[in-house]
Design brief:
Low-confidence stretches: 81-85
Number of strands: 2
Shape: globular
Number of helices: 6
Number of domains: 1
Mean pLDDT: 79
Radius of gyration: 16 Å
Distance between the termini: 42 Å
Largest sheet: 2 strands, antiparallel
Strand content: under 5%
Structural class: mainly alpha
């Protein structure tokens, strides 16, 4: 199924009644959130090696939730409000560069959890 989620879906995901970080999401401008969602979608597709898709009613792991979490992660890592101006400024942070260098991936921990398709299960034989 093709991916059809929009900023409206992300805003619903980050609603006060649904997500503890709703205030953080809402503090970013619409343009920044829209751009972060587009970038997050590209990053998730690169990570999983396929196009993202809308979830079915039974999906436990969700491409859309991973994108929403990754978008906030991108905003937190790259957008800072300066004290001299009252507008967001895009910057690359040392944390982002260190994560890329150390882990080779910049996906948020929550995005990775939503993408975890397989779990390792160890059982003892009888």
């Amino acid at each position: 199924m093709a991916y059809t989620k929009t900023i409206t879906d992300a805003n619903a995901y980050y609603a006060v009644s649904n997500h503890v970080r709703s205030f953080d999401w809402a503090n970013y401008g619409t343009d920044e959130r829209t751009g972060a969602l587009a970038q997050a979608k590209r990053e998730i597709e690169l990570f999983i090696g396929r196009d993202v898709c809308d979830p079915s009613g039974t999906d436990k792991f969700r491409d859309d939730y991973a994108i929403f979490e990754q978008a906030l992660f991108i905003l937190d890592e790259t957008v800072r409000t300066t004290t001299s101006q009252n507008s967001a400024q895009m910057i690359e942070t040392a944390e982002t560069e260190k994560r890329e260098r150390d882990y080779g991936v910049t996906l948020s921990p929550m995005a990775q959890k939503y993408l975890a398709r397989q779990r390792l299960r160890i059982s003892r034989g009888s």
